[in-house]
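User: Can you predict the 3D structure for this chain?
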Amino acid sequence: MSTSALATALEYAPIIARVHSHHPELARIRDLTEAVATAEPDADLAPLFAELRTLTNDYKAPADTCETVEATYRALASVEAEYAGR
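Assistant: Here is the predicted structure, written as structure tokens:
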């Protein structure tokens, strides 16, 4: 899977995990984003997206985070929508 949304999420996920380390779930979100990006084309990504939805509260950024977290969550939601529509 290769989209600009995935590229955005891959770029931002490590940054937000570092900057917002008081949100430990962001480290797992980073790891899941990398797993989605490196998955085989025919891989079942549904469990990864289910965990992402849980960790991100259905892609809603916490109030005490920045616009980059919001952009990352929007990107991940777009990637999931693309996956679901394939």
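The chain has a mean pLDDT of 95. The chain is about 65% helix and 0% strand.
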